[in-house]
Amino acid sequence: MCCALKLREEGIIARQKIKILSIFGTRPEAIKMAPLVKALAAEPGIDSQICVTGQHQSMLKQVLDLFDLKADCTLDVMTPHQTLNSLTAALYAAIDPVLERVRPDRVLVHGDTTSAMVAAMAAFHRRIPVGHVEAGLRTGDIYSPWPEEMNRRCIDLGADMLFAPTLESRQNLLDERLQGRTFVTGNTVIDALQMTAQRIEQDADLRASLDQQFSYLQSGRKVLLVTGHRRENFGEGFLDICKALSHLARRADIQIVYPVHLNPNVIGPITEQLGDLPNVHLIKPLDYLAFVRLMQRAHVILTDSGGVQEEAPSLGKPVLVMRDVTERPEAVAAGTVRLVGTSPDSIIAGVNALFDDDLLWRRCSLAANPYGDGKASARIVDALMGRPVDDFIVVPALPGSLGTVGASLLAMDSRTPRSASRYAPSLTTIASKLAPTDRH
Fold this sequence. Notes:
Elements: H1 2-16, E1 18-24, H2 27-42, E2 46-52, H3 57-66, E3 73-74, H4 84-102, E4 106-110, H5 114-125, E5 130-133, H6 148-158, E6 161-164, H7 167-175, E7 181-184, H8 188-202, H9 204-212, E8 222-227, H10 236-248, E9 254-259, H11 264-274, E10 280-283, H12 288-297, E11 300-303, H13 306-315, E12 319-321, H14 329-334, E13 337-339, H15 344-356, H16 358-365, H17 376-384, H18 403-413, H19 427-432
Parallel strand pairs: 1-2, 1-4, 2-3, 4-5, 5-6, 6-7, 8-9, 8-11, 9-10, 11-12, 12-13
């Protein structure tokens, strides 16, 4: 009798678990979702399952292996020369049966990919609640980035839990009067970065093995790390980027490393324009461990990647962004990120300034990271479990000054009620410790 009662009780407990299905398909999504998925799996009240769409099949596996994750469901939706519309149709057709079979209590998606948008809409059509990780990012231009800006707006519109990485992204959501509950969590990519950087730091053999991958780098020459893959830069944009890099490659004091994205629209022009330059190292896409190590070794990073904009401040690396607008204005305000667009003259001037002006480089490298403290996943799990969640707050890097970002967040702090934080001190607490002249 006791055993039967125990089994019934265990069954009740099991049924009370929240079944959460995380759906993602690209390498950046996997990196940012990995620490959250691990936190979900460690939560006794959650039954966590993973569905990967395979939008970046080969690159995705690297991330899953790195973080010791296994997908419960793997889809195969990619075909050669696929349009966005055909990809969208394939994703709808593949994801809907998964929702029917798994019957999750909630779907989690990340960011702004086509996989995320379709997963969110498919869940909405089945009246399954959606949580959006990295909600509220906006450029104000639906064609930049394209199609990501429209994707994330659609997701935010239908999600009932919105996990905004910063106070500014939360304010974007409030301004749009969306129905979902909003939480300021920080960005999970900082969780992933800290986990990875700590692993590299603590393992000398791993560090040596990673450095062996970059044995072609010459000591005494600083590294310019380049990444680029955005659709809006396809064609003329990448040709302009190549012109700038060809010019910069003439500098004898720097060496350029470019892990080239596998998309034919990227690898084609990059290889054709830069493949024969001795000072430019075109390499295959790196796994996340190796890429973090390469970021650590870089002097300056030139990118169109959103994730790199978020990660670099934690590593003390100035970033030049090859876009005209960014949905991540916090790092621009903090001074660690500068927009240079794809104009060759602008890229050349931006890179030369950071390599030639040590004071400017130090100013950019010392800026606070406005995107996270490594505890975003814990905040999201707390929110999902109905526990109190305190907002992520930027702690200024330099004592005695809040800086541009800190000052703007302090103004927002007055209209953002919160309890005493378990995660970070509030800006009002920080401001109270500054001299009166520093607060005006």
